[in-house]
C-alpha cells in the first residue's frame, strides 16, 4: 500500500461494498457490470474519502462472486482493515484498461460532451452516470431540465470530440426529465 497522490490518470472501475471474511478480503461492485473485467487488474487505487489521498494496493487474489469480485489486497490482512475500505471508490490506471473495439467506448469518453438527437435537437451536456443493478443511466443537463436516459448501446449512434448523437424512442425525454 502506498500513497498515489493525484489520480487524474486513473479511471473509476468499481466501489467497495463490504468486507468479506476474517482474512481481509473486500467485495467490489464493478461499474462495467462485468466482474470478469476486474480480474485483470494487478494494482488498484482506493479513495476512501472525498479529498483524501488515494492509496495504491497490489491485488494478491481475485475471484468472482455473483455480480461482484472478492479481492485480497496486499496490506489488508484482517477484517478490521477491510472494514476501513468499505464505500471506497476503486480506480485503475488508464494504461491498464483493455483496448477497445471500433464500436466500443468508455463512459468517461461521453462525460462533458453535448448530447444531440439524430434530428439535431440538443438535449444537453452529459454530466455523469447513475449505475445500479437494474438500468445504468446517463445524466444530461439541459437548459431548463435534467434528463436520465437509459444507457442502451443501441441508442448511441455516433461519438465525436464534441458530441454524442443518440436515437431515442419517441417520448423518452418527456418521461425521463426531472
UniProtKB/TrEMBL annotation:
Keywords: Chaperone, Cytoplasm, Ribosome biogenesis, rRNA processing. GO terms for biological process: ribosomal small subunit biogenesis; rRNA processing. SUPFAM superfamilies: PRC-barrel domain (SSF50346), Translation proteins (SSF50447). Residues 109-172 form the Ribosome maturation factor RimM PRC barrel domain. Its main location: cytoplasm. Residues 13-95 form the RimM N-terminal domain. The PRC barrel domain binds ribosomal protein uS19. This is Ribosome maturation factor RimM. It comes from Candidatus Electrothrix aestuarii.
Amino acid at each position: 500500500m502506498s500513497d498515489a497522490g493525484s489520480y487524474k490518470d486513473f479511471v473509476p472501475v468499481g466501489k467497495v461494498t463490504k468486507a468479506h471474511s476474517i482474512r481481509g478480503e473486500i467485495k467490489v461492485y464493478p461499474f462495467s457490470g462485468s466482474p470478469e473485467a476486474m480480474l485483470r487488474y494487478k494494482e488498484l487505487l482506493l479513495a476512501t474519502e472525498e479529498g483524501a489521498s488515494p492509496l495504491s494496493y497490489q491485488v494478491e487474489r481475485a475471484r468472482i462472486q455473483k455480480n461482484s469480485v472478492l479481492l485480497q489486497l496486499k496490506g489488508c490482512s484482517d477484517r478490521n482493515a477491510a472494514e476501513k475500505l468499505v464505500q471506497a471508490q476503486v480506480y485503475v490506471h488508464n494504461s491498464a484498461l483493455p483496448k477497445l473495439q471500433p464500436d466500443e467506448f468508455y463512459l468517461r469518453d461521453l462525460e462533458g460532451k453535448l448530447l444531440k438527437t439524430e434530428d439535431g435537437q440538443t438535449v444537453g451536456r452529459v454530466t455523469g452516470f447513475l449505475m445500479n443493478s437494474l438500468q445504468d443511466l446517463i445524466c444530461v443537463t439541459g437548459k431548463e431540465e435534467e434528463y436520465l436516459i437509459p444507457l442502451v448501446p443501441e441508442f448511441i449512434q455516433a461519438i465525436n470530440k464534441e458530441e454524442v448523437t443518440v436515437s431515442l424512442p419517441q417520448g423518452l425525454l418527456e418521461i425521463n426529465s426531472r
